[in-house]
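Running this now, will post back.
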Amino acid sequence: MKLLSNDCKTLSPARDFLNQPMKNNSKNGHENLGFLSEKFGFMPAHEPIQGLPRTHFAWDDLAHNLSTLYRNQTLRKKLERMPVLSADRDSLDDVFLLRASVILSIFAHAYTRVENEPPVNIPDSIQTPWIEITHRLKRPEPFLSYIDLIIYNWKVRDSTSIDPMRVENLDLLIPTVNNQEERVFYLTQVEILSQTSPVLMHVINAQEAVLNNNKKALIKEFSLIKKRIQHITKVSLPKINPRPDSKTHVDPIVWAKTVAPFAVPLKEGTQGPSGTSSPFFHLMDVFLQRLNYSSILGQEALKIREWYPEHLRNFLLAVEQISVPSYVANSKDSKLLNAYNEMFEAYAGTNGFLGAHKRKVYGYLEMAFKVGRSVTIGGFQGLFEDKTWQEVDRQLEETRQERLLT
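Update: finished.
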């Protein structure tokens, strides 16, 4: 903790840590070690790069035509014939690594999923540079991360829009099946993370209110966090809508057949880009001092956090150092406790975001397993008669209850 000399305000470890990654990212001209900033939270500070150098045109070209090749079943041959391009430091500048990671990760999954019969191996044209990119990004192994599939896989239609980071104003940077179900399902997650970007600074402000014993300021931050969570619960999450008359209709059957299987990890033990990977969940859990991670999804969350980029891991550790719930409990202040409980319910309550998310998952997974899906991104698997969607629902409820016990 630091003391700010001009107003004698004690700063939280999280704010102290935040400054250095922001400076590093600005100096380096890239965010390879993790998206982290006051304004954009866990989202990129700049719109994802839409092109690689001419030396790697083959990747861009195939990515541009990916959905067509996927649809007409010629993708595997194209990828097998694609030249093996180097992704070492002499061949590809750091600024292009995140786009290259998106492309190669999606290529690997597309190559595997495009046909019913899985391939024996992923071709060197994908695997060799994918391994190089993984090493340079300091990831434990090649895998399709939440960053690749969601956080760095979008582009804005109209940048002059007052509120551009909405599903209606976004397109996928690299679609695979290129249907409404894919676009809305992925981009709703982009919208949610973008709309909760202010929560990062509200969390820091709340911790500093605790350090400076400012209950009025703390109540204000609780209220602001609650409003952001209520917004994504009522406005953003419902955009994944099963109703055919909705402008953001996501047909459960089409989704199950075309989108749902794509991101399932290629090998057991590898992290998949499930919703649990969203940094928003991890920020809230650390801020609210979640202690119980014994459920299947709780254990998955801890593994996901270990695989996060360096800046994100260290920031969450910094947030973890200040216990806001303990301060609230010890204060015995009824107004403060009520404000905290309202924020907590907005996040983890039955009718809060986690409750709404659980109901949304149940509806889509029930239909998915009825039409033949056998495994989820998070590793839950079984046949229709096993009613696996009910097991997922039980696990989501268990992990929600774990938050209530903090």
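The chain has two domains: 54-152, 179-404. More later if anyone needs it.
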